[in-house]
Amino acid sequence: MEDQITKKQNKINIHKKVFVQQFIQLTLKIWNQFIQKILFQKQIILVKQVNKFRTLLIYLCKINLKQLIYSLDIVFCQLKRNQISTHIINVQISTLLLIQGIFLSIRLMFKLLVRLLIKQILRVFILIELTISFIVYQRFKQIIKILKIASKSIVFEYVRNVYFKQILFIDQRNSLFILKKNRFIQINKDSIKPSYYNYDRY
Length: 202
What we know:
Keywords: Membrane, Transmembrane, Transmembrane helix
Number of strands: 5
Shape: rod-shaped
Protein name: Transmembrane protein, putative
Oligomer: single chain
Radius of gyration: 38 Å
Distance between the termini: 109 Å
């Protein structure tokens, strides 16, 4: 009698191991179908990312094995009490595995979509930053253009300051100016030694 109980227990343990493997294979199958049908068609995700999430999926399956085995124990106990045939046992456990696999896959899909959404938001911020940089660059070009026109009309002439590595501006009265925050600010000419700048006029 004890030998029969031990054999039955060993069979149950073997069934558990097989069902756990089926669970992992089933969830991977659902995941792969999701990737192929949805993500690859829209070209949202890279192959490397898919492999990373496959690894993550297997890892999560292994973490949930205790909970899964506990669920299987409950199912086996209920089926034992009711003395249901092995075929129905397989069907019920396969249904349990399918439900758990689907929920796990949905959870991982949600995490993936959140990450993709964050990446898209970051791309938008980068695009905004590039746009602002382009606008600033265009504004800078306009300022240079205005200064060139001003120098040609002999309102301002500008000289390159060798010592301070800065562009200075000189008007018809030989007063020196610097450009700061789009405004001309007059500086004291005597505070700058003549040898520190040369009059390369444009």
